[in-house]
Design goal:
The protein is built from seven helices and six strands. The protein is α/β, with parallel strands linked by helices and 182 residues long. Strands 3-2-1-4-5-6 form a six-stranded parallel β-sheet, with helices on both faces. Strand 5, helix 5 and strand 6 form a beta-alpha-beta unit. It starts with 23 loop residues before the first strand and ends with a helix. The relative contact order is 0.17.
Length: 182
């Protein structure tokens, strides 16, 4: 087979036919090393996960090496599986198999968008206009504050307002749209 002549699938639609068959959702509450200011509060993630589990969705919490400190928040959560630091091939397969990907601005969010998986990416200190994942199936939620995007230049920011002001209700409304719950 001449791979140069093979058609590349449209990533926006490659997996959309199976969306309704999938019953689990991947949530990535972490961020890359040194960028904890990109993280939405863990209690907000827990609230979202509780609502999803109540609707009989299984949730996979994805944690990387730098997110391991979050393990205690999710390890005894009913209806939640935890995937820790998967190898790239397994990460891609996990994301390809999910119905919805939700998380902070991170590598896995970009992978989900590239694969055409419905997703929700939360932004705070980084400008989503220049950094958001491309793809029509990914939604960006961002609090447009006077101090943001700071791109981490505001070293005195200790309260992480840009992420804390993203409400659970706002995220849940986007989840409802993505999952056709309304």
């Amino acid at each position: 087979v001449n791979k140069k002549n093979m058609a590349i699938p449209e990533f926006e639609t490659a997996f959309s036919d199976r969306d309704s068959e999938r019953k689990f959702i991947v949530i990535h509450p972490g961020s890359e090393k040194g960028h904890a200011k990109k993280e939405w509060p863990v209690d907000n993630y827990k609230e979202i996960i509780s609502m999803l589990v109540e609707l009989n969705y299984n949730v996979v919490v994805l944690l990387g090496d730098t997110d391991i400190h979050l393990l205690s928040y999710f390890k005894n959560f009913k209806g939640v599986d935890i995937c820790i630091n998967p190898v790239p091939e397994d990460l891609i397969q996990l994301i390809k198999s999910t119905r919805l990907f939700m998380g902070n601005d991170s590598g896995p969010s970009h992978i989900a968008s590239f694969l055409g998986i419905p997703g929700i990416t939360l932004f705070g200190p980084v400008n989503p206009i220049s950094s958001a994942s491309l793809g029509g199936r990914n939604s960006v939620i961002y609090s447009d504050l006077d101090c943001s995007p700071c791109h981490f230049s505001n070293v005195h920011c200790q309260d992480n307002r840009c992420m804390k002001l993203i409400s659970v209700k706002r995220v849940w409304c986007e989840i409802e749209k993505k999952l056709n719950l309304k």
